[in-house]
Design goal:
Layout lengths: L1 H18 L15 E4 L2 E4 H4 E7 L2 E6 L5 H10 L6 E3 L4 E4 L5 H38 L5 H34 L1
Antiparallel strand pairs: 1-2, 3-4, 4-6, 5-6
Helix pairs in contact: 1-4, 1-5, 4-5
Length: about 180
């Protein structure tokens, strides 16, 4: 069913968005959206450097090409992650500051909004699916019983995906509060 595929993509997009939300712990995934200007081309950070996590609150970015160190530093600053990179000419060190209570609340609000947008997307996919089924029934392609059965099936799928969004959000909220 095409609806199922669209719902899967919505879940994947939510997970991707959540990876960009910084928590108090160091994680390489917070740099997924950082793009470095590499000879006029915007390249993902992980394609021009190694991102390692030596401790819970620090990150080391080791560029493959040492001449890129200032470009990488600039890209991290412009990514608006709230991090201050410092370089020693060879590697970039980034200390992950602990989150303040206000910042945690702000991040939870942001995550909640992302989760709600995903729930809305899932419901819109369900609505589109129901409309398609009604059109098929009017055109005589499916019977009224089939319509009822398929509508119920679509609702079960919708409920399953919304429950998945809720559990992903709950896990992210817990991670932010740690």
């Amino acid at each position: 069913m095409a609806d199922n595929e669209r719902m899967e993509k919505t879940i994947a997009a939510l997970k991707e968005s959540f990876n960009g939300i910084r928590t108090g712990r160091a994680s390489a995934s917070i740099f997924d959206r950082v793009r470095v200007d590499y000879y006029g081309q915007k390249s993902p950070l992980n394609q021009v450097a190694t991102v390692s996590i030596p401790e819970a609150r620090s990150v080391i970015v080791n560029p493959f090409d040492k001449s890129l160190i200032t470009e990488i530093e600039k890209a991290i600053l412009t990514a608006d992650l709230g991090l201050n990179p410092s370089n020693d000419g060879k590697v970039i060190r980034i200390a992950i500051p602990p989150l303040t209570a206000d910042r945690r609340k702000e991040l939870i609000k942001q995550a909640k909004a992302m989760a709600e947008n995903s729930r809305t997307s899932i419901r819109n996919i369900r609505r589109d699916g129901n409309e398609d089924l009604k059109k098929k029934q009017k055109a005589g392609e499916i019977t009224e019983d089939d319509l009822k059965k398929m509508t119920d099936e679509l609702q079960k799928t919708t409920d399953k995906f919304i429950a998945e969004i809720d559990s992903i959000y709950a896990a992210k909220e817990k991670e932010i509060m740690e």
